[in-house]
Fold:
Amino acid sequence: MSKPTIKTRRKNPAKNIHLRVKPHARSLIDRACAITDKTVTEFVLDAVCREAEDVLLDRRLFNLNEKRYQAFVAALDAPTQSNPKLKKLLSRKSLWES
Structure:
């Protein structure tokens, strides 16, 4: 007789994402996976999560009360102030342009 087994459920089970990929894209992904020594799942998940973070970081939400919102708007609307060090930096050629 076999012993009874106890089944445990994961609190947050992994979910599948199914993709249809054209052969040239799959080949590109496979080559990158080989170079980085990652599985396709690891490679794609890393890339997708990195892009998702970038998208979300580009769209920040500001929760401000009325007084702070007005100060924020006033700062945005205020004329720029001269910054000689920044002007000098931006007028120099980049290292890769030299």
